Amino acid sequence: MTLNEIIADLKTDRVKKVIFDSDTYNEMDDQYAIAYALGSDRMDVVAINAALFHNQRSESFADGMEKSYEEIGRVLKVCHREGTVETFRGCPTPISESSGFAPVDSPAVRNIIKVAHESDEMVYILTTGACTNVASAIMIDPSIKENICVVWLGGMCLEFTELYEFNLVQDYRAGQILLNSGANLILLPAIGDLGHGTQVLRATDEELKYIKGDSDACVFFRDTLPDEFRAETVAYSGRFVRIIWDVAAPAVISVPEAFEYSIIPAPIFADSRSYAFDATRHPIIYMEKLDPAAVLKDTFESISKL
Q1: Domains assigned to the chain
Q2: Whole-prediction pTM value?
């Protein structure tokens, strides 16, 4: 497909084949995003990969990946999807200079390659953490680019001069590789000014009550998980909110009318940790803005179906 054909495909009712790639234990929005994808009628989630991360919630990149793998299992269990969706451990380390910037192999990487080759349709890879798994898969087998579209929530809006967004800096080299690869890519910048970026996806605890029902999943996402992550509540415009921006990735497929895109030459993640631009580069799909009310409404309705 061309990029214009991908945008058109997203607007069709065809159920899309999806691999979810997530640093699930890093914060609470990945859990909502996975549940959203599982509850949506427009996605067939064929696998969920654990992505690495290293911060105060992990002892190392490998530990962050392992904790994410365990958290994926918890989400599947509470959604009563345990055993119905395959899960894979991802890369335990970022792509590094010490290894000559070689790809990092893992079960998740091998499964991305396997699904891409076996599928007779476009595979959408929803990536809500460091993009190490998908970048490594493309490096190991560049031929998969023909049959995948990466939806990566990472980086910052193009007006920024300094790149410090978490998903990008966890493996900056993987971000460079992905944007240089020529793979079909929908870039969802996380941080932006003037109401741009997926950071506009914020919900109060009262808004989380829009998840209706008494199923294990509804109770977990409406009540239990917000209590576990009470420390993530932040003040914004006079309200206490939760940042749940990772739900933007499944929303690309589940509620495509909520997004506005441009097709642009792929920006460059320069070694100086800033953007560089070259009008002759291959094109990508770039999210200009989204409708947060439409995305959150669809998120809560989809989770309520579980």
Answers
A1: 3-304 (3.90.245.10)
A2: 0.96
